[in-house]
Every structure is written in structure tokens, then in C-alpha cells.
């Protein structure tokens, strides 16, 4: 459990859930807790089991083993109540393009028994900058507007927990940034969000915690910064005034050293500083070593591994554990 959430009841509690499709195990013994107010990203390659897991949680899939509770209620035994707590934005369009944007939201409100469904629809159209399109046939909306309308539709009944399945799949950079801004605003207004994504940058930008899923198994769940620090490395790339072999740095104390060019080496090290601006303690030691070796650094650049590198590492380790190696 994240330390800042100790004592807080999880909004979503998935316990040892498995789902088979014939001989295929799409979700394999997954346990997961999501706490109120979080953005949780479920990260995994195609076919990892993300959509199936969301289907089990949101009630679309009823036959699975294990248990799932939302707000303390069992998703199968208390389905009608749980359905009111959950909103789902699927990957594909889920409205009839011949209805107007306003109608889609009002009908959805009616379906969920929202008393003031007209006001609610108008409020959502306003919040998602769709008021001017309220009376437009939804099939004529732009791709970004359609995505926003799908989010509105999932929010009509004011769910506590919102699932976004691949919210920015196939959208351009501008629209992606716009959708991210909406997701952040939703969280600020108190909605707990679980999103699935292939886009590592999306998880890196939005999520408080990240779960990595592969072949139906949840391989790890960590706070974003901890994940970066645990699996990630920082590096320092130094261009010297003369050629130098990476072997010359065997005693540098780094995890590894790479030769980038004849005069340029990259030094990788683990670092526990969370703050990007902090200088890791190995840096002054390296600089001293360069001086002792008579090496003059002409150019120094720094960076840290991105979530993408980490994802490859975790999935690669999983492949190795399973005797695979496809991802290595
Ligand atoms: N109704 C179904 N019948 C049979 N197999 C299914 C069914 N739904 C999903 N699967 C299989 O279960 C596995 C997990 O699929 P799922 O859609 O959950 O993956 P995903 O992580 O959401 O993938 P993507 O990122 O491509 O959407 C896949 O091998 C898929 O083919």
C-alpha cells in the first residue's frame, strides 16, 4: 500500500482474479487495490489482459474466479449498486452516431435514473467544451469531440471510479494533451481513475501508481517515482578531450559504462534522489576520477531512463522467468 494511503479503505479491491477463455488464461491471479483519488495506470502490451480485467471489474464479464469489490460491495452480488459507482470509457465508440450529443447524455442519464439528467447533460457538455455541439448529430463530431463525448457519457451518473481503456489510442499529440488535461481535472474533482495504456509516456505523465501486466499476470505495482528509481537508472554522458576506452572506468562504481563515440562515454548508475534537480553523489566522485586520469570533460549531459526502458526490463525479466526470452 502507498504509505500516504495507510488506513484508507481501497475504492477498488481485486483479489486473486483469474479469467479463462477456453484454454487461454487472459487474467491470471491478479490482486490489486486502488485508493480514492488516485490515477492508476495499467500498462501492458497487446493481449496482456487489460480490457478483460476491466470487463470483470465493470460487470461486463461475470464469470471469473476470485473476488472484486468496489466501495466495499461485491461486483457480482451487488451488481446494480456497483454499476452506479463505475463509469467505463471503452476503446471503441459506444454511442449511436444518429443521436445528438445532448440526447446521448440525456438518455444515458435516464438509463441510470439520474433525477436532474437534463442539467447534468448540459453541465458535462459545458465542462468538456461541447456546448456548441449539443444539437449536432454525434457522427459529425471530430475524433477528439467524440472521445470527449464518450467520457461525458461515462460520467453522467457521477461514478466514483472511472475506467479509461486506451483513452488516447490513435489520437494526435494536440488532442492527447487536451484529453490528459481533462483527466487531470477529473481527478481534481474527486474521481478515481484507472486507465489502460500502451503509451508509456501517458502513464509517466498522468499516473500516481503504475501496474505492469503481461500474459494476464500483474508483474508489479509501484508508485511512479519509486518505479523510476527502482528499475530506472540515471546516466551521465561525458565527451573528453581525447579518446578513451570504457574499460578504463572499470572501477568507477557505476552500474555500467557504454562507449558512445571514441571520445564519449555514458556512465549509468542507480540513484535514490527523487528530485530531478538533485546531484547524485556519484557525480563528484566521477569528476575527481576523470581529473586523476588526466581526462578533461569537454561536454557533460545527464538523463534518466524512461518508463519505456523500465517496461522493457520488467517484461523481459518475465519472459526470462517463463523460459521465454521473446522480449529480451
Ligand atoms: N471474448 C473473448 N474470447 C476469447 N478470447 C478473448 C476474449 N476476450 C479477450 N480474449 C483474449 O484474451 C487475451 C487478453 O485480451 P485483452 O483484450 O484483455 O488484452 P488487452 O491487454 O486489453 O489488449 P489490447 O491492448 O490489445 O487491447 C487476448 O489473448 C485476447 O485474444
TrEMBL record:
<dbReference type="GO" id="GO:0005524">
    <property type="term" value="F:ATP binding"/>
</dbReference>
<keyword id="KW-0067">ATP-binding</keyword>
<dbReference type="GO" id="GO:0016887">
    <property type="term" value="F:ATP hydrolysis activity"/>
</dbReference>
<keyword id="KW-0813">Transport</keyword>
<dbReference type="InterPro" id="IPR003439">
    <property type="entry name" value="ABC_transporter-like_ATP-bd"/>
</dbReference>
<dbReference type="Pfam" id="PF00005">
    <property type="entry name" value="ABC_tran"/>
</dbReference>
<protein>
    <submittedName>
        <fullName>ABC transporter ATP-binding protein</fullName>
    </submittedName>
</protein>
<dbReference type="InterPro" id="IPR003593">
    <property type="entry name" value="AAA+_ATPase"/>
</dbReference>
<keyword id="KW-0547">Nucleotide-binding</keyword>
<feature type="domain" description="ABC transporter">
    <location>
        <begin position="12"/>
        <end position="240"/>
    </location>
</feature>
<dbReference type="InterPro" id="IPR017871">
    <property type="entry name" value="ABC_transporter-like_CS"/>
</dbReference>
<dbReference type="InterPro" id="IPR050763">
    <property type="entry name" value="ABC_transporter_ATP-binding"/>
</dbReference>
<dbReference type="InterPro" id="IPR027417">
    <property type="entry name" value="P-loop_NTPase"/>
</dbReference>
Amino acid at each position: 500500500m502507498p504509505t500516504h494511503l495507510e488506513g484508507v479503505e481501497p475504492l477498488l479491491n481485486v483479489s486473486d482474479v483469474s479469467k479463462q477463455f477456453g484454454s487461454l488464461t487472459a487474467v491470471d491471479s491478479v490482486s490489486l487495490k486502488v485508493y480514492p483519488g488516485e490515477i492508476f495506470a495499467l500498462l501492458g502490451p497487446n493481449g496482456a489482459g487489460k480490457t478483460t480485467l476491466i470487463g470483470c471489474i465493470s460487470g461486463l464479464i461475470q464469470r471469473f474466479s476470485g473476488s472484486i469489490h468496489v466501495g466495499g460491495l461485491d461486483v457480482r452480488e451487488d451488481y446494480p449498486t456497483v454499476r452506479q459507482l463505475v463509469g467505463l470509457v471503452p476503446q471503441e465508440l459506444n454511442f449511436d452516431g444518429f443521436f445528438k450529443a445532448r440526447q446521448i447524455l440525456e438518455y444515458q442519464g435516464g438509463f441510470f435514473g439520474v433525477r436532474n439528467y437534463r442539467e447534468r447533460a448540459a453541465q458535462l457538455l459545458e465542462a468538456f467544451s461541447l456546448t456548441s455541439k449539443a444539437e449536432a448529430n454525434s457522427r459529425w463530431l471530430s475524433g477528439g469531440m467524440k472521445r470527449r463525448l464518450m467520457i461525458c457519457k461515462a460520467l453522467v451518473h457521477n461514478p466514483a471510479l472511472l475506467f479509461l481503456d486506451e483513452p488516447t489510442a490513435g489520437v494526435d499529440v494536440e488532442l492527447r494533451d487536451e484529453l490528459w488535461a481533462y483527466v487531470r481535472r477529473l481527478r481534481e474533482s474527486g474521481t478515481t481513475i484507472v486507465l489502460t495504456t500502451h503509451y508509456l509516456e501517458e502513464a509517466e505523465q498522468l499516473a500516481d501508481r503504475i501496474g505492469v501486466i503481461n500474459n494476464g499476470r500483474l508483474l508489479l505495482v509501484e508508485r511512479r517515482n519509486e518505479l523510476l528509481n527502482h528499475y530506472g537508472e540515471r546516466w551521465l554522458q561525458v565527451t573528453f578531450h581525447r579518446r578513451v576506452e570504457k574499460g578504463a572506468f572499470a572501477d568507477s562504481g557505476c552500474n555500467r559504462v557504454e562507449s558512445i563515440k571514441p571520445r564519449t562515454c555514458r556512465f549509468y548508475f542507480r540513484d535514490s534522489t527523487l528530485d530531478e534537480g538533485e546531484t547524485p553523489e556519484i557525480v563528484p566522485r566521477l569528476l575527481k576520477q576523470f581529473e586523476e586520469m588526466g581526462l578533461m570533460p569537454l561536454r557533460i549531459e545527464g538523463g534518466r531512463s524512461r518508463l519505456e526502458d523500465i517496461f522493457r526490463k520488467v517484461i523481459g525479466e518475465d519472459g526470462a522467468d517463463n523460459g521465454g526470452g521473446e522480449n529480451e
